Amino acid sequence: MTAELHRLPNGFRIAVEPVPGATSTALGIWVTAGGRHEADHETGIAHFLEHMAFKGTATRSARDIAETIEDVGGYLNAWTARDMTAYYARVLPDDVDLAMALLADILRAPAFDADEIEIERGVILQEIGQVADTPDDIIFDWLQEAAYPGQAIGRSLLGPAERVRGFTRADLTRFTASQYGANRMILAAAGAVDVDALLARATALFGDMAPAAAACTLPARFAGGERRCDRALEQAHIALAFPAPGYRDADFFAAQVATVALGGGMSSRLFQELREVRGLCYSVFAQAGACDDSGLMTLYAGTGGETVAGLATLAADEIRRAADDLSEAEIARARAQIKAGLLMGLESPSTRADRLARMAATWDRLIPLDDTVAAIEAVDAAAARAWLGGLCGPGGLAMALYGPVAGAPDLAALSARLAA
Question: What beta strand segments (E) does 223-278 contain?
């Protein structure tokens, strides 16, 4: 059966994909409001709001919510990203109505109880502290900030502790009122789904919801920069970022395939040269992430303080070399990895639902799976090399370092090495 996208008169969208033979249903509400939709004084509030999702509504306590979903063996969860926030469930088919009612209650009638706000404030502050104490977590926040300085898309999703300490019930209510409108929400469901019943239930629960103003999303501007913290740790952590295409960019799949060939697995250039041949690190990888209008290719490695300079230099050399001589065999292997990851992931109804929501949010339509596979297969070595070659010019690099990194090259030196 094919996936379908429906729209209620108020702009609320419903993306649904029945999967023959599925024995469970994944469903959720994806809201096109995340970290990049926060004003500076609101930094961290989208994530705070996600934490408050299951802390009670006008008719249900936090305990009621937990017991209601677990009484039927299901689960509820949520996550926050820079471009959206998701609230999702996994249940057996007979409990879809129950899950939808819970999601509607959570989103439409949050209590924002004062005591619960204080409890979650403490939890989030602990989370911020935990990330700050985890070098291979915090370094990616620093890298994002270095890549997009002074922009909402560059700020930490958790927010600075001083902001989190100051959020009030009024702040949460105001952000919800301005961002959580019917036209900014997508109900996505996949697996064992009765489409007609789902549409009828969605209309009853969300059909009278008011729309919100269109999202005010400032274009992302990659600037590049460096964040360095020299500290006595066991490992030196280094992360590099380059501008990469957004989902709507014509080069999106070329960047994805090139990145996998460069650092996406044990056969990749970076893993083979830096770990297997040189023995400079235990962990090294490259990945390409994206939003609608922008993306980042990030490279991470952990090494010793005495080898961080050599590792950084060799990583730049490998990027430059890959831009010159990536082979068709390497690209075929990378295409196979991406295609297999996509298709195997779709064995999970949750992954299918997430894919539906992303497509609806990005293109306002559902892209046939065959079209996506064809776009992956169309990437050849020339396209991948051309995209990597664009990374080797001046000004296209951000870098974050943490640990015993005094000997690491600075941004200018590494940029010059890439451009050599």
Answer: 225-230, 236-244
Q: Is 67 exposed, middle or buried (0-12, 13-18, 19+ CB in 10 A)?
A: exposed
- Contact at 8 Å (CB) between 212 and 267? no
Candidate list 17, 50, 145, 318, residue with the active-site label: 50
Amino acid at 220: A
Cα–Cα distance, 370 to 154 (Å, whole number): 34
**Unique residue bearing structure tokens 């509504």:** 57
Please say if 4 is a catalytic residue.
no
DSSP for residue 288? E
Integer Cα distance of 157 and 44 in angstroms: 5
Asked if residue 290 lies in contact with residue 298, where contact means CB atoms within 8 angstroms, the answer is: no
| pTM of the model as a whole | 0.94
User: Distance from first CA to last CA of the chain, Å, rounded?
Assistant: 52
Bridge partners, 300 (sequence order): 239, 285
Instruction: Extract the tokens encoding 73.
Output: 């063996």
DSSP code, position 57: B
SS3 82: coil
Q: Extract the tokens encoding 363.
A: 């293109």
Q: Which amino acid is at 270?
A: L
Task: Round to whole Å and give the CA distance between 408 and 307.
Answer: 9
CB 376 within 8 A of CB 253: yes
pLDDT at 393 over 80: no
392: left (phi over 0), alpha (psi -120 to 50) or beta: alpha
Q: How many helices (H) and strands (E) does the chain have?
A: 16, 11
Q: What angle do CA 365, 354, 107 make, to 5 degrees?
A: 95
Q: At CA 210, angle to CA 204 and CA 214, rounded to 5?
A: 130
Question: Pairing relation of β-strands 295-303 and 225-230?
Answer: unpaired
Residue-level length of the chain: 420
Angle among Cα 144, 319, 236 to the nearest 5 degrees reads 55
Comparing C-alpha atoms, which of 245, 82, 64, 256 is closest to residue 157? 82
Euclidean distance between CA atoms 326 and 227, whole angstroms: 31
**Taking a C-beta distance cutoff of 8 angstroms, is the pair 240, 397 a contact?**
yes
> What pLDDT was estimated at residue 420?
78
Spatial CA neighbour of 259 closest among 330, 343, 312: 330
Reported as a single tens digit per residue, the pLDDT across 346-391 is: 999 999 999 999 999 999 999 999 999 999 999 999 999 999 999 9
